[in-house]
Amino acid sequence: xxxxxxxxxELAEAEAQRHETRRPVSPGLEAMLFRPLPVLDHGxxxxxxxxxxxxxxxxxxxxxxGRGTRAANEDRGLIRxxxxxxxSTPFEMCEIKYHVKLPIFVARxxxxxxxxxxxxxxxxxxxxxxxxxxxxxxxxxxxSAVNRQGRGAVxxxxxxxxxxxxxxxxxxxxxDHYLEMLNEDAEGRxxxxxxxxxxxxxxxxxxxxNAYTQWYWKADLHNLLNFLxxxxxSHAQYEIRVYxxxxxxxxxxxxxxxxxxxxxxxxxxxxxxxxxxxxxxxxAAGADPRQEGSGLSKREWRELxxxxxxxx
Amino acid sequence: xxxxxxxxxELAEAEAQRHETRRPVSPGLEAMLFRPLPVLDHGxxxxxxxxxxxxxxxxxxxxxxGRGTRAANEDRGLIRxxxxxxxSTPFEMCEIKYHVKLPIFVARxxxxxxxxxxxxxxxxxxxxxxxxxxxxxxxxxxxSAVNRQGRGAVxxxxxxxxxxxxxxxxxxxxxDHYLEMLNEDAEGRxxxxxxxxxxxxxxxxxxxxNAYTQWYWKADLHNLLNFLxxxxxSHAQYEIRVYxxxxxxxxxxxxxxxxxxxxxxxxxxxxxxxxxxxxxxxxAAGADPRQEGSGLSKREWRELxxxxxxxx
Amino acid sequence: xxxxxxxxxELAEAEAQRHETRRPVSPGLEAMLFRPLPVLDHGxxxxxxxxxxxxxxxxxxxxxxGRGTRAANEDRGLIRxxxxxxxSTPFEMCEIKYHVKLPIFVARxxxxxxxxxxxxxxxxxxxxxxxxxxxxxxxxxxxSAVNRQGRGAVxxxxxxxxxxxxxxxxxxxxxDHYLEMLNEDAEGRxxxxxxxxxxxxxxxxxxxxNAYTQWYWKADLHNLLNFLxxxxxSHAQYEIRVYxxxxxxxxxxxxxxxxxxxxxxxxxxxxxxxxxxxxxxxxAAGADPRQEGSGLSKREWRELxxxxxxxx
Amino acid sequence: xxxxxxxxxELAEAEAQRHETRRPVSPGLEAMLFRPLPVLDHGxxxxxxxxxxxxxxxxxxxxxxGRGTRAANEDRGLIRxxxxxxxSTPFEMCEIKYHVKLPIFVARxxxxxxxxxxxxxxxxxxxxxxxxxxxxxxxxxxxSAVNRQGRGAVxxxxxxxxxxxxxxxxxxxxxDHYLEMLNEDAEGRxxxxxxxxxxxxxxxxxxxxNAYTQWYWKADLHNLLNFLxxxxxSHAQYEIRVYxxxxxxxxxxxxxxxxxxxxxxxxxxxxxxxxxxxxxxxxAAGADPRQEGSGLSKREWRELxxxxxxxx
Lengths: 312, 312, 312, 312
Description:
Four copies of one chain form a homotetramer.
Chain A: H1 5-16, E1 19-21, H2 27-30, E2 37-39, E3 43-51, H3 54-65, H4 67-70, H5 75-84, E4 95-103, H6 104-110, E5 117-120, E6 141-143, E7 151-154, H7 157-182, H8 200-203, E8 212-220, H9 221-231, H10 238-254, H11 256-267, E9 270-272, H12 274-284, H13 298-308
Antiparallel strand pairs in A: 2-3, 3-4, 4-8, 5-8, 6-7
Helix pairs in contact in A: 3-5, 5-11, 10-11
Binding site for FAD (chains A, B, C, D): 89, 112-114, 120, 220-222, 226
Subunit structure (chains A, B, C, D): Homotetramer.
Function (chains A, B, C, D): Catalyzes the reductive methylation of 2'-deoxyuridine-5'-monophosphate (dUMP) to 2'-deoxythymidine-5'-monophosphate (dTMP) while utilizing 5,10-methylenetetrahydrofolate (mTHF) as the methyl donor, and NADPH and FADH(2) as the reductant.
């Protein structure tokens, strides 16, 4: 994440500005505003704007509950109640906007979350930066033997070095050929006078999927939490999870009560199927149930036992 | 729009607060924040929060255009370009939240705009206010003879008085019976000790469609403009148009450049069908085209002539 | 649910038609097509069209899994896996369209599900039927004393009769006044020649919320299941639950494997918060945990004990 | 677009099947079902399923218009009316599902249309085909000098050959290295026993943006037309336009009346801003307006004159 001098100056100016507002303010998030949180080797996430705070969730819920409940509940209890019962509309009343720099293959996963607003840097108009993601050595994982979408042991020695060489050389060469076809350098200056460059919308197809792009991404708090529930999770691919982890830190600073409820009722929660519940009720009644006859597959059984802290 | 003492106090407190923020601020909208703009006889619209301003649209667009255009365009020109070419995503980067009090039959039209977040006051939990919409005399229109969804001449004299009597009496009686069934008064106090009240979720069905409800309604600027293009328009029913008109005033205060572009390229714009365009080209070439053979229906022909300021 | 002769004939014609198609067909749902399933006193749900079946879910999932898994999984297992892990996109590949007749206050709850397509009968253009919902005696429930949104004991005797009288008389009177203001009867015939009728878009505001409306409602299977998870549930208001129950029957006929997975992994499933899980792990390890110190509120504790089949 | 023997067989089976259904059928689209329409060098679009036809639009609109209009309008007129006045909800009642094979950089544009359902072939699970898009010689365009997002003259001779060589060599080499890192061939067979392959979710980042992916893409007719209005248009990039053109052919076969209305009121239509309309009214009144003082920029003036078939 190397910023140009101009970008550094713009960030400093944005951070320095102070305005007076009547709107509610989240002190925790104000302190993080505009600062890029580094992610991967060249990426970042930074909060560009936000609307609302914990109390905005409460305020919206009370319109729908009306005056009767106003006195009865205090804010934390109400937020926990809403999270637990998946009353999602009050969380939609907060909004946040990020500027993100990320590899294209991560962007392709990310964009599957449709309930968000996006403006992406366009390679039809502009030239992409000469930056590509190269995994850190400890992330150079083999295909998992047991999980079709997971990672296994880390590659080592010559093999790891070879893979990194291929990734670096291919990305670099393809980027250099991209500029050559454009007949422009990374700052848009003509390389060879008199030679015609290929259209940008075509030349970009030579780039690799680990090239970095960037976008403005805006979502309401409910949809952001849905995104984080999936992506700040051990089943998510590492390269998107690190973005989600950084965003989770901004949520904690922004809406601490919502963050706590999210941790207890979403991140730390588990769902038991009808069959799993029957097994748990059996255990609670002193029985010693077994996989056979439980209606659970072996895999579900193993998962349930792991959940309960038992040997499968 | 009669506020209780408590509500008046809450509004005054909200208006009095001042915070420091690094976020961009719209001075025009800050001045309007929290104040109810009266609409119809008991309704209002008030801005509760917002995010972004004219420059947020520009900033988002420039991520997607990239550094090359940064110098070339100035903000107003870029915003007009985006509006004209219906590049909608940069407008999605601004967000606004309203608190609205409105008759239920207006709420039923309004909610057809799905791209918004809503928290409505719930009559399952709470008791609605004793307020119903009664049209002003000049709004007591007859069914239009030519337009199935329009209004004709205004009713007058005895007939108008009779209609107003019916509306007032029926709404009042039904509301009183609603309380009677609940065995509660409008403040939720038991009317007759020892008598059981009907469940709120049932009793509400006795209310009329001109009873007032209220909600928090939040949308991004793009979807808000879509709403206003349809509802702040002469074809919209008067009772929703007055809400849209009030909201348009808030847009003007909030994002003046966007508002100006909206006026020129959406509100004041017309669309010509392929056949209409052919007629206009004929006129521009000095011909004197007629409806017969134009491919336009009589109605379309009349509309085109009206657009052009000609006799049909 | 009284159909006119014309409507009866249209239904009979629709049911009688047979076409040849290359598209997949759901035999179970074909048998139910077009037939109104009666709901409440005058309402109905009927399937008007559909797209896809169980195998469409599998087919879509296998594009995203690719050739490797093709042989390994059989359809039922894959559908259960997708449901369990909340992989929602394959379920979005099936679509269903209903024609529904329902009271307006139910329609107002229903429409909060935004991820659907709706065309509602418009009272701006047309005259509504003379039909309103009157609860059956066993549904005339008092407000619950413990649950702000629930029902308590059933009203009886004089009190029940009185409530029903009020509901019937108010709805009838208001409807009659609606026609009087329109100066039209329910079939749109002028009542009194020479008198001007109030515009339909205005007169409708005199109707009560138990008047019936109707709409076409279309959703994909994923969003339909979200709707059913909330509305075919004991926490939903009775008057919308009976619609959801009827729709659940159509889902069972349409996509039996999806229906079975929905029952096991959504309807019959429970979610344990982080704190609840800790309690359950304690029980599984032989401990006898108590509410104090568990991090659970009394209400959550009671719920957990009920889930486990234990005394609280 | 080379299909494997298995794929060819699956297609033949799908095409051969015949079922009986009560649902409406579109004969024109039935004839195209399942058949891949070739697009670009290795891509295709094929219709996999559909729901509804022209009459479904009419049927839905008439619920919202009610019985009164039933006799007055005939189908074609009503569909044209709806299209002209942008009444979009009746068009949402039809649905279509495509299977598409397309280059990744096209997929990245396409997916910006959020109102659709997608299941994409996953390179986390599976190995992509050894196919990449190489522009045909007449598509090897230079960057436009006047339009930042357009194409200029076609590259020729050595330069064109050199660009094609770079694209082909880079894509091929990167794909081969992708397999080498995976230690698998394109069919998933291990290349070198005993060597550990890199995880698929990582190796894919070495692919170029002209590699082909595939997905199931489903949308309702309203959102499909929005997609086609933007993408089957001369301003769209050629590589996505050819997909949109093929899809437009399927729309014509499926809903001929809707297609005709779309052509007249969307594709062939133009929008005049408030200022443009003033100029046109001037011309219609016999004046000879000029750019100065018109409120139009030079670019807008040129566009208007071109629209009117006049010299700028």
